[in-house]
Write a structure and sequence with these properties.
This protein has about 475 residues and is an alpha/beta fold. It folds into two domains: about 240 residues, Glycogen Phosphorylase B (Rossmann fold), CATH 3.40.50; about 190 residues, Rossmann fold (3-Layer(aba) Sandwich), CATH 3.40.50. Helices cover about 40% and strands about 15% of the residues. A seven-stranded parallel β-sheet has the order 3-2-1-4-5-6-7, sandwiched between helices. It has a seven-stranded parallel β-sheet with strand order 10-11-9-8-12-13-14, with helices on both faces. The longest helix has 25 residues. The chain is globular and about 65 Å long. It is found in: Endoplasmic reticulum membrane. Pathway: Protein modification; protein glycosylation. This is Alpha-1,3/1,6-mannosyltransferase ALG2.
Length: about 475
């Protein structure tokens, strides 16, 4: 635990949905790190399911308050997800303010991420507090299906609102130098007005994590049980079931191994899966169909019990919404982590794998270029060439000596401990908050600003309803960033 500061601050986090994902992992780690340094931290969120969140959000480590979950749903008949997300954030802020929670807590600063639309309102209601906004990635670049003109028209007010509202933050941070460059090129005027600070996500590097089950087996904590799948070797992919994660690349590369090369080996595809999210459901089905079309035997498991009981002849195992204990077990025992997203904003899973001595195969773009050292802690390969990924799989499984693998394992552990530990992020964040509090704030928003905010929201509502009713569009493609895994 990091040494606490003498001048502890009260910091309130505002997060849309405290589920399981890269953005949520960062929020939890940031909150725990700041709390460990002597600050009071309270997380306000519109939704947090105890069955679908990180341990620290449900076991009392962090104070989590769920507000603003009604009456606005996450979407309307699978449509208007961005509009609903904005309205839910505004509702969250107004509800917390109306119930006097803000005044009773007396926050010195706010940590807001993913959605910037509520920043002008927050500035108006809390003019003396400082606002820190963490931009995982510009939302306008994440929205697919922009080819048709009416979809572009639908997004215009939301895209304008994203840039305009972000300027109300005292400090803007991003998760990697890659993201910083993207933000600066997307919003050059914003980058000129606001310094973009890179704050890397972290992984817990301590020898013991109280939220993770010890031992190398899931046997009730005894640590002497039967090895995972009788010691069967496996390649591991951990990502949410979203098409942008390109998990299909792992399946195609694995299928490229000759039968003798993959004999006794399994590909495990684990990650966040929410049955409420249509894309999660649809993409899982697509991946299952792909595995079948390539002649790979497969099975899907939704619980620890069914995961551990997977027959030995299953070549591709899908694990849905993996709990922390099983994720830890997978990371400890994998032969190789296969990280498929291209242009990933940062990517926390490669660090988690390297910390446990597992080499990483990742796309040669985005955040992994800043974390994975090609040929030292893993490999960086083009996602456009699955055959190169197949070669690395064969290398890690069949051709590298135990000594070479041990050397790569040690390099990975050292890389994470020296540059991406939890104390690094906590100290950097705490320093940024101290800097903000030592400078004069920008004050309350102008009346013109609030008029523009209201006008933007009304235009968004009008355009969304018009487009959906007139063209019958609204298949859930518009979305707010839910960060990286």
């Amino acid at each position: 635990m990091a040494k606490a500061t003498n001048n502890g601050k009260t910091i309130l986090f505002l997060h849309p949905d405290l589920g399981i994902g890269g953005a949520e992992r960062l929020v939890v780690d940031a909150a725990v790190g700041l709390q460990n340094r002597g600050n009071r931290v309270v997380i306000f969120t519109s939704h947090c399911d105890p069955k679908h969140c990180f341990d620290e959000a449900r076991d009392g480590t962090l104070e989590v308050r769920v507000r603003g979950n009604t009456p606005i749903p996450p979407s309307i008949l699978g449509r208007f997800s961005i509009l609903c997300a904005i309205l839910r954030q505004l509702h969250l802020i107004l509800q917390v303010y109306a119930t006097s929670e803000l005044r009773s807590l007396g926050p010195d600063a706010y940590f807001v991420d993913q959605l910037s639309a509520g920043l002008p309102l927050l500035r108006l209601l809390a003019p003396t507090s400082r606002i820190f906004f963490y931009c995982h990635f510009p939302d306008l670049l994440l929205v697919r299906g922009r080819a048709r003109w009416w979809k572009r028209v639908y997004r215009l007010p939301f895209d304008a609102l994203e840039q305009w509202s972000m300027a109300f933050a005292d400090t803007i941070a991003v998760n990697s130098n890659f993201t910083r460059g993207v933000v600066a090129s997307t919003w050059p005027s914003l980058a000129k007005r606001k310094e973009l600070k890179t704050v890397y996500p972290c992984v817990a590097t301590g020898k013991t994590n109280v939220n993770e089950q010890p031992g190398s087996t899931l046997d009730g904590g005894e640590g002497d049980g039967k090895p995972l799948w009788n010691g069967k070797r496996f390649l591991l992919s951990i990502n949410r079931f979203e098409r942008k994660k390109d998990v299909s690349l792992a399946i195609r590369a694995f299928a490229g191994l000759a039968p003798p090369q993959r004999r006794g080996v399994r590909l495990v595809l684990a990650g966040g899966y929410d049955p409420r999210v249509a894309e999660n459901v649809a993409y899982h089905r697509e991946l299952v169909a792909l595995a079948a079309s390539l002649g790979l035997s497969h099975r899907t498991a939704g619980t620890i019990v069914t995961a551990l009981e997977a027959p030995d002849d299953v070549e591709v195992l899908f694990l849905l919404s993996v709990p922390g204990a099983l994720k830890e077990l997978l990371l400890k025992n994998a032969a190789l982590l296969v990280y498929t997203p291209r242009n990933e904003h940062f990517g926390i899973v490669p660090l988690e794998a390297m910390l446990r001595g597992v080499p990483v195969l990742a796309a040669d773009s985005g955040g992994p270029v800043e974390t994975v050292r090609d040929g030292v802690t893993g490999w960086l390969r083009s996602p456009e060439r699955p055959e190169l990924w197949t070669e690395v799989m064969d290398l890690a499984l069949n051709r590298l000596s135990e000594g070479e693998l041990a050397h790569m394992s040690e390099a990975g552990v050292r890389r994470v401990r020296e540059g991406f530990g939890e104390t690094h992020m906590a100290e950097r964040l705490d320093g940024i908050f101290d800097e903000m509090l030592a400078t004069e704030g920008e004050g309350a928003s102008s009346m013109l600003g609030m008029v523009l905010l209201t006008a933007s929201a009304l235009v968004g509502v009008f355009v969304a309803v018009f487009v959906a009713l007139w063209y019958g569009w609204g298949n859930g493609n518009e979305r707010v960033i839910w960060a990286e895994e």
